[in-house]
């Protein structure tokens, strides 16, 4: 039964929002942040997610501690999903097209100041890497931008059918929504502890449990990992170090840096802000100082380490010790340093101090004495104790140390109008069936629940007009491959695909998904063919009559018949930009 008769789709904003629930491009989520958490809810509704619970990998996971559960989920995701940001996967659009969609109800100048695809480049880091070249856009005219659609769990899993893929795949927003759903369903972490964080060029989650945990693409980052100075943590730090947070999304709602209204619980947002800020700060200890030197390689050459192998005093360049870390299970840190030194070739040691280098031993002694003092007090103590390093060198090093041990996230400010949402209450103890029933039941009174039903594509409970609009207007992937073919040739290609949908039950794939994964139900194939016909002739009139198993597409005197297992009784008329459903 259609749950959305009260939605006025003659209003452009409503139609764009609800049609965006299917394509879910990064741009659409930026404009409509209320779509972000419904994607998590749609993944929670997915039967694929609940099959994870049955996998032997997760046996008795509910009996394990939080970190062990998170690591299990991480390893499963790493094994089954790769990161994919290929421009050809979901096609390209133009800035003009997207501005035309949103300019009636969104300040486009604000868009240019906040979204990477429209000119925003963050701070110096992003100017240095050249954003368009970094993402492979430099080969296109500057007006061209990618769709970068966020995949549902079904689409992510279906990548295994796509050429050159052996597992599932997804981009960073997809992976963040996947992690959030997995943490809830498999990890039994309540949704009120899971926050989605979007920056102009990235998306990740913060799990407010114990010290906190970040999920970052396919990885997880603990507080210790954030400060360990490795290449992996360096990549994990980039977004929060260099970008403004544009959206924080939560089961209670969202907050957006550009919007004056916020729907997230003010208490939840304050708790998140405090906990994330604590996560990104640590004290300067000898262990953290070693991690800093690992992170900022330019300072390694300022130090040496004094030791006594075989009872004789020897000296070794610090960068040489870090070099040996790469092939050892031991590190330069004090707790395993002796074991690492035993693995280092004797020829690497010097019998006399290396000129121009400070002894790490002396630095660590200063840090022990100044434990608990402010960073500025420790810096002054360094200067007083140093006989090798200049005051200028120490000051520069401590400026970088400050940035290493204290990241201040650029979060949306709390000076918003906080609007109370109709809260969604689902528990880790609920079954999938109970959650699906709850969201369907509450979709009449709760927009997040309603949007979740749309993102989930429960076609027997939603209005088809936004779906058909999205299918025809924002699914270009097949066009280049089918360019120059006749409708009969296209029909022949589609008939060669297996008659199976990547979505179960009465749910539908979009044309891009049918084409990427080379399979689809008859209804889905008919929509792809309609997409092709309209692209070839924008004035064409297309009719799709669905009567249970029988699907008949008619256009310009031609008829094409498909077979469906979806059990719909619908007529879809596509006439220019009008989509008539009966």
Offer a few descriptive terms.
about 575 residues; single chain; elongated; 28 helices; three-stranded mixed β-sheet; 3 domains; six-stranded antiparallel β-sheet; alpha+beta
Q: Please report the distance between the alpha carbons of the first and last residues.
A: 13 Å
The radius of gyration over CA amounts to 28 Å
Uncertain regions spanning at least 5 consecutive residues:
none
Which class of secondary structure composition applies to the elements?
alpha+beta
Whole-number mean pLDDT: 92
Could you say how many structural domains there are in total? 3
What does the largest sheet look like?
6 strands, antiparallel
Q: Could you state the oligomeric state of the chains shown? A: single chain
Shape: elongated
So how many helices? Answer: 28
Task: Please provide a written account of the structure.
It is built from 28 helices and 18 strands. It is an alpha+beta fold. It folds into 3 domains: 12-281 and 409-456, no CATH class; 286-405, no CATH class; 463-581, no CATH class.
Layout of helices and strands:
Blueprint: H1 12-23, H2 26-31, H3 36-45, H4 47-52, H5 66-80, E1 81-83, H6 87-90, E2 92-94, H7 95-102, H8 108-114, H9 124-129, H10 131-134, E3 144-146, H11 153-158, E4 168-170, H12 172-185, E5 194-199, E6 202-207, E7 213-216, E8 219-222, H13 223-226, H14 231-242, E9 247-250, E10 253-256, E11 261-262, H15 266-279, H16 286-295, E12 303-307, E13 314-317, H17 318-325, H18 337-343, E14 358-359, H19 360-369, H20 375-385, H21 391-405, E15 417-418, H22 432-442, H23 447-456, H24 464-473, H25 477-482, H26 487-496, H27 511-517, H28 522-536, E16 541-555, E17 558-575, E18 578-581
Parallel strand pairs: 1-4, 11-15, 12-14
Antiparallel strand pairs: 2-3, 5-6, 5-9, 6-7, 7-8, 9-10, 12-13, 16-17, 17-18
Helix pairs in contact: 1-24, 3-12, 3-23, 19-20, 20-21, 24-28, 26-28, 27-28
């Amino acid at each position: 039964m259609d749950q959305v008769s009260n939605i006025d789709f003659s209003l452009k904003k409503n139609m764009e929002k609800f049609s965006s629930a299917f394509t879910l491009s990064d741009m659409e989520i930026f404009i409509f942040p209320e779509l972000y958490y419904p994607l998590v809810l749609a993944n929670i509704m997915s039967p694929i997610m609940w099959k994870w619970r049955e996998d032997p990998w997760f046996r008795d996971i509910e009996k394990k501690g939080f970190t062990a559960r998170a690591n299990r989920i991480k390893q499963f995701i790493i094994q089954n999903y790769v990161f994919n940001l290929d421009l050809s996967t979901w096609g390209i659009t133009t800035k003009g097209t997207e501005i035309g969609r949103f300019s009636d109800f969104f300040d486009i100048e604000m868009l240019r100041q906040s979204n990477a695809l429209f000119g925003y480049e963050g701070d110096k880091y992003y100017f240095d890497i050249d954003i368009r070249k970094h993402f492979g856009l430099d080969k296109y005219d500057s007006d061209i931008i990618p769709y970068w659609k966020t995949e549902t769990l079904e689409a992510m899993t279906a990548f295994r059918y796509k050429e050159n893929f052996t597992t599932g795949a997804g981009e960073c927003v997809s992976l963040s929504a996947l992690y959030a759903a997995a943490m809830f369903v498999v990890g039994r972490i309540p949704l009120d502890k899971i926050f989605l964080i979007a920056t102009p060029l990235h998306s990740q989650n913060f799990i407010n449990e114990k010290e906190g945990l970040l999920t970052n693409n396919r990885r997880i980052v603990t507080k210790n990992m954030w400060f360990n100075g490795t290449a992996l943590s360096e990549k994990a730090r980039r977004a929060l170090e260099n970008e403004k947070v544009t959206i924080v999304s939560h089961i209670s709602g969202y907050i957006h840096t550009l919007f004056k209204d916020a729907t997230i619980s003010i208490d939840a947002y304050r708790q998140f802000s405090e906990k994330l800020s604590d996560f990104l700060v640590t004290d300067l200890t000898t262990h953290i100082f070693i991690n800093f030197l690992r992170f900022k390689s330019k300072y390694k050459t300022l130090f040496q380490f004094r030791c006594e192998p075989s009872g004789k005093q020897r000296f070794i360049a610090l960068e040489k010790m870090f070099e040996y870390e790469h092939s050892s299970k031991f590190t330069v840190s004090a707790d395993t340093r002796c074991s690492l030194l035993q693995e280092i070739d004797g020829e690497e040691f010097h019998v006399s101090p290396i000129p121009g280098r400070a002894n790490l031993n002396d630095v660590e002694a200063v840090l022990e004495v100044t434990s608990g003092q402010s960073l500025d007090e420790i810096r002054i103590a360094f200067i007083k104790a140093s006989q090798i390093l200049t005051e200028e060198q120490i000051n520069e090093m401590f400026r970088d140390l400050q940035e290493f041990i204290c990241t201040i996230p650029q979060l949306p400010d709390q000076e918003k109008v906080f609007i109370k949402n109709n809260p969604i209450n689902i528990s880790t103890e609920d079954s999938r069936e109970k959650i699906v029933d709850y969201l369907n039941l509450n979709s009449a009174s709760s927009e997040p629940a309603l949007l979740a039903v749309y993102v989930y594509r429960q076609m027997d409970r939603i209005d088809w007009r936004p779906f058909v609009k999205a299918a025809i207007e924002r699914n270009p992937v097949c066009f280049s491959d089918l360019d120059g073919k006749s409708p009969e040739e296209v029909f022949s290609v589609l008939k060669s695909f297996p008659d199976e949908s990547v979505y179960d039950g009465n749910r539908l794939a979009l044309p891009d998904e049918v084409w990427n994964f080379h399979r689809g139900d008859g209804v889905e194939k008919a929509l792809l063919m309609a997409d092709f016909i309209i692209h070839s002739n924008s004035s064409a009139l297309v009719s799709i009559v669905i009567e249970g198993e029988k699907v008949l597409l008619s256009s310009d005197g031609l008829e094409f018949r498909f077979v469906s297992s979806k059990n719909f009784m619908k007529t879809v008329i596509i006439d220019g930009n009008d989509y008539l459903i009966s």
